[in-house]
Amino acid sequence: MNTSQISRRSFVRMSAGAAAVGAAAKAAIANATILQPTSLAAPQDSASDSGRKIRFVSIGTGIRGCDLLRSARTVPTGICVGAADLYSTRLTAAKEAYGADIPTTGDYRTFLDRKDVDAVIIATSDHLHRRVTLDAVAAGKDVYCEKPMSHTVADGFAMVEAVQSGRRIFQAGSQRVSSILYEKARQIYASGRLGQVHFVDAQWNRNSPGGAWVYPIPPDASPQTIDWDRFIQDAPPHPFDPIRFFRWRLFADYGSGLGGDLFVHLLSGMQVITGINAPATRAYSSGGLYHFKDGRDFPDLLETIYDYPSADGGFQLHLHCNQNNADGDERLSFFGSTGTLVVTGRSVTFTPQNVTPQFEGYGWNGMTQAQRQQGMDEWHAAHPTPPPPFDPTGETFSLPKGYDDTAVHISNFFRAIETRQHVVEDEVFGNHAAIGCHLANYSYFHHNVAMWDPATKTIKG
Ligand SMILES: NC(=O)c1ccc[n+]([C@@H]2O[C@H](COP(=O)([O-])OP(=O)(O)OC[C@H]3O[C@@H](n4cnc5c(N)ncnc54)[C@H](O)[C@@H]3O)[C@@H](O)[C@H]2O)c1
User: Disulfide: which of 125, 220, 320, 435 matches 303 by Cβ 3.0-4.6 Å?
Assistant: First the structure.
């Protein structure tokens, strides 16, 4: 474990005790702290100067956008001053999620012209993350962009370049990195109690149409209510199709399949716990489309084996998502030489392994009694002092009921805007996690090992 990587990195954290629901949770969210010392440019009308609330607009107010608005309502350090969406009904949904007073529009660019807007929260389909981020950065806004940060490798690097040259705060939207659960797991990992870790297993499974993105098509969906041309502006031309609009995750033109939807959360979690902030060097995927044969581009079972560099000499990450059986749900397991760390959606468990030196009799079973006795005598001569007894005590930590990691993640973003300091899931971190999705999909669709080439910043294979 390279603890210096961790200590250099930004961490936006709150205490476990402060994570309870209600007033205490609100206070804790307001008091989240940031440790990264890099300063970035302030917005035009600096919120940090005035001490006023961070003023943000929400771009894309569908399923996630409305959830973000509901969480943002509980964060006292910011205020939503507008919502934009291409589907007019979702502007009503945004008002219902946050408040009837927020101004709404079909064209987010009208908000970018406003000097009193500090930031944007982007929750559009993946293929528009780049365009909206670049527009927002060009207008001097700080950006919270949903995961996966990029739809392609090139998009990710274009976003990194724009954010850094514009000296903007950027946060990708894998909210688990701000959770006290992941902070607890990071602390256990950094303590060295796992020993050397060379194998990590991560999974996220579902077994329902909704879990496989077969989302409802509302009856009012039509070219009159949806600005289809704007939806497909960075994608190949296609006639209006409500299935493509509401179930965009099924199609490579707009989404990234299991890689972009679920892998990215597990990859971000792995990055924050291990302190590794780099792409995998190699990835190999397999899988298939077994159940949801509805014309989608992506498999409903995907598994990828990655090679990751680490201070211990590297590890294998086996990442798998199945939409045909929900057993196991969400789970990230680190198998170390002296212990195992398992992170689920709501808990962290550390279990030590008994590696106390002992005479191993099994290998002597095919020997004579005399040989076995001699082997035992020699072993005891080489180990004159009895080892300390094994302490099997592990550790378990569970999230408090009602804990909202999205609210904490939003709060951390607002705090970063105020202090002009990086958040942990900044543009570089988010780009590395997204590259993991692209490596997985590249290997799956090319039937080949995907190699990351840092010199050209491209995937080869
Ligand atoms: N962090 C999480 O846990 C989490 C959960 C779900 C989704 N997401 C991410 O959030 C994003 C949105 O997912 P979703 O499920 O809400 O999709 P969705 O289809 O329900 O909503 C997307 C909305 O964006 C709007 N939109 C698209 N382009 C736009 C533009 N140029 N201007 C304004 N509005 C535009 C669409 O009209 C739509 O209403 C995706 O990137 C997804 O991966 C993250």
Answer: 320
